[in-house]
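#structure-requests
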Amino acid sequence: MRYLLEYVRKIWKVPALMAVCVLIMAAVLNLYELPAEPVIYGAVLCGAAGLASFFYGFIRYRKARISLDLLKKNLPEDEMRFPAAGDKKEALYQEMLLEMNRLRKVSLGKKELFYRDLTDYYTMWVHQIKTPIAAMRLILQERDEQEGLQELFKIEQYVEMVLGYLRTEDISSDMRFDECPLDGIIRGQIHKFAGVFVRKKLALEYEGTDACVLTDGKWLGFVIGQILSNSLKYTRTGGISISYRKESCTLVIEDTGIGVRPEDLPRVFERGFTGYNGRGEGASTGIGLYLSARIMGKLGHKISMESQPGRGTKVLLELKREYVEPI
């Protein structure tokens, strides 16, 4: 019915013109007092021919519209295969669309090539810079320069963040799902940040867990590391506790830091959002939590945050795989 109404709106001028012509002929014959039968007979014949033409045209129009609807529905996946053009004007429009589609593909190809080259370069850069960082760490350890070690640790964190940011754009090729012991992943990140706990004199509360989760251990470890890094950055006194809720398969990382303002809480996982605390720190990039949320989505897990200013922050990592974000 929809196609029929569209077709009537498209060609209504033609039957209207034919009706006007019949009325003019009837008026002329009436003025000359000629018999009306020829006019009626001619109108019936013209009407029959018009209906035949109408239905033939409608069938062609309907077929073309169905083809265009299918083309529109599958446009991202399929090549553009237009129905046969009705006239030269329509054929020209089709040629223009095909050319525009070709130029779009060329542009996308160049963009993908540029991004691939950029990713390869920065990946190589990250791996190359790890060597002088490791050498600096050995030198500073020999001299027992704690301040230098702290700054070097920050450099390592930013380098890891760069690599994580680049890889999350095409993370599907780098994911390997398995039943991973959660305790090993957590302790690996705790060991990495042990020096920061000692320097800031912060307590750590973690009793261990025997849980196994279906996940990618490396990427989940990256997320836990980002959460610990944030907690350590904004916690001056007290400490951090890590626990696992078996009934809901949720890992909880809670600190006694400065907390997050209520107006900032809904936006903490947005890219580049630093909030009031981030602006106060001056060194916040607003990337760590954004990356964590993206990675958790790709892993099929969930992440959320609860916080009150002055009372600390609680990050909840729900490790069930009830859904998976499209990769």
